[in-house]
């Protein structure tokens, strides 16, 4: 059995990360995994998220156990035959990767980064996390992993902006496949509506709107994002981190 190409996609919150995972999961050659470090993150931080008990029961809470699984044999691709998948795409919320969690296990992965303009992201995040801190945006962790990967490879890994993907899905996804070094597959542009067996148990809480989609939806009209005043310092700190990554956008 050949070892799959492991692809880690690192996103911040309130982005199109699950839609992007849907795109990858539409390929017959690809297995997908949804936020495998979520339970470990909740167990370590004690944070009270919706569905916390179910999440903790659904995944290992020890990050090393998760890392061993993610670097081990790949699950079968749901849409494929009994053949081992050629690709294994793992969607991560970057803030789930806490400082005490090792990084060396990630060196065998191909990495991509999904970003969103921080004012828009924080305006949305504030609705569910009004006391958000900089680390809750995922941007510090994304920059850390981006720079670590760049140093290891000698060149920058791919960065996508969620709004740009929604505006031009095919060019964005073609560029992502090329940057990662995998073949393009037009199946990534469409998917069947509804939940997936590969969705986390939090799917009914967070993915209800996604369940209605069959592809990437065009972005909403541009309008100024209103960030609550208490989060103004977070926005100020987030901007240079976002700009560091946005300079390497592809597509």
Describe the 3D structure.
InterPro entries: Class-IV_PLP-Dep_Aminotrnsfr (IPR050571), P-loop_NTPase (IPR027417). This protein has one domain: Rossmann fold (3-Layer(aba) Sandwich), CATH 3.40.50.300. It is 37% helix and 11% strand. Helix 2 crosses helix 3 and helix 6 packs parallel to helix 10 (232-246). The protein has ten helices and five strands, in the order βαβαααββααβαααα. The chain is α/β, with parallel strands linked by helices and 251 residues long. The two termini are 33 Å apart.
Distance between the termini: 33 Å
Give the CATH superfamily.
P-loop containing nucleotide triphosphate hydrolases
Strands side by side in the biggest sheet: 2-3-1-4-5
Shape: globular
Integer count of domains: 1
Average pLDDT reading? 94
Q: Structural class of the secondary structure composition?
A: alpha/beta
- Whole-number radius of gyration? 17 Å
The proportion of residues in beta strands is 5-15%
Specify the CATH class: Alpha Beta
Question: What ranges have pLDDT less than 50 throughout 5 or more consecutive residues?
Answer: none
SSE series: EHEHHHEEHHEHHHH
Number of strands: 5
Largest sheet data: 5 strands, parallel
Our count of helices gives: 10
Q: Tell me roughly what share of residues is in helical segments.
A: 25-40%
CATH architecture: 3-Layer(aba) Sandwich
CATH topology: Rossmann fold
């Amino acid at each position: 059995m050949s070892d799959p190409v492991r692809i880690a996609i690192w996103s911040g919150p309130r982005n199109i990360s699950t839609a992007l995972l849907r795109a990858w999961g539409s390929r017959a050659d690809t297995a997908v995994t949804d936020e495998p470090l979520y339970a470990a993150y909740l167990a370590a931080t004690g944070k009270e998220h919706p569905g916390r008990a179910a999440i903790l029961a659904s995944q290992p809470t020890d990050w090393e156990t998760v890392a061993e699984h993610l670097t081990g044999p790949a699950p079968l691709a749901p849409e494929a035959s009994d053949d081992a998948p050629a690709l294994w795409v793992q969607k991560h919320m970057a803030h789930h990767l806490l400082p005490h969690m090792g990084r060396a296990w990630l060196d065998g992965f191909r990495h991509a980064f999904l970003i969103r303009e921080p004012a828009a992201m924080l305006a949305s995040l504030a609705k569910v996390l009004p006391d958000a801190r900089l680390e809750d945006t995922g941007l510090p962790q994304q920059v850390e992993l981006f720079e670590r990967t760049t140093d290891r490879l000698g060149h920058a890994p791919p960065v996508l902006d969620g709004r740009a993907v929604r505006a031009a899905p095919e060019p964005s996804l073609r560029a992502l496949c090329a940057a990662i070094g995998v073949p393009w597959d037009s199946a990534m542009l469409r998917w069947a509506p509804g939940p997936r067996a590969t969705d986390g148990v939090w799917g009914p809480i967070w993915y209800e709107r996604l369940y209605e989609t069959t592809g990437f939806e065009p972005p909403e009209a541009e309008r100024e994002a209103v960030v609550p005043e208490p989060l103004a310092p977070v926005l100020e700190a987030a901007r240079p981190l976002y700009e560091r990554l946005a300079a390497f956008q592809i597509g």
